[in-house]
User: What shape does this take?
Amino acid sequence: MHFSAERTLLNENIKKIAKVVPSRTTMPILESILFTLEGNELQLRASDLNVSMKMSIEVDGIQDGTIAVPATILQQIVNQIDEDKIELKSEEDGRVKIISKKGHYDINGRSSEEFPSLPVVTNSNTVEVNKEILNRMIRKSIIAVGRDELKPALLGVLCEIKKNEIKFVATDVHKFVAIKNTNFSSEEYEGSVIIPERFLSLLLGYLGGDGSLKIEIGENHIKVDIDNYLIYSRLINEQYPDYEAVIPLNNEKVANIDTVEMSSTLKRVSIFSNQKTKQISLKMNPEKSIISTLSYENYSSAEEKVNIDYTGDEIELGFNAEYFIQLLDNIDTVNAVLRMDTPLSPNLLVPEEQLEDEELLMIIMPIRLENS
Assistant: This one.
């Protein structure tokens, strides 16, 4: 394989596809980007076995071929070369030579035969989603994706597709987000799949601009074809919990809060909290509302008044401040509505006003206060 290319173009695309390369793996070949040259078309591929990506760019082809090149060192040197054009050339012994006017740099390549093939999306259905809507739904939901490997279903976002609505749901059991949009149509497919968070985070980088995006959903994989990029992901084939069972229906204690003020107050007070639990107390009555914390480990405490419109009986709730802040910062409106029941029951948090065609609902689970 031998070609020359615009350094800026090559550098930009190496950076994009390198995001798929795993930081840790037991398979050394996955630390590489696969280069395949046919004529003037250069294909780049990367995979972590769960997420795969393929892209094509135009180069000046000299000799067709294919080889896998270690991603980290390749990205570093191509980024640092300060020339307009560079060449890449693979030798018969597997070495890859990067050539500039000022010098050349050699890397050990790997055989393309070791590289995993692209997934096959079987029994697939295609749905079309507006880019702006999809961008918003991903950003709103992924903040609640779980991190516990022992609960694999929670490592992704549940995507529910009906004829006239699309819904994303995510939870880590401490917080919960559900966002639904009815400006959507799916004539041929209705169903639900769990999409890994890594795939959705990667997809965010390609959802700029107007227009729509076609998503191919298969039995075990999902695929997106956008511009010159193909992105695949293995679906999480697990049973998602019955999330509707945890949505409280009878929370009659209602507080109207300023999201910015509440978030900034929590950030200040939580500095003095237990750094493991981030526990804070929110005590409300019609006269005043106070956010406080006490850490026996650090011998520290803090207390601050916060403006909350609340007219019910006095209630004191315990929260993980970090989770509460994440949800508050996920709301676009100036004010939000917090609906409560008892100190240990789930709390609903919603925007004061919903956007047209959208419903955003969040839940924050309370924690038992240490001094209770």
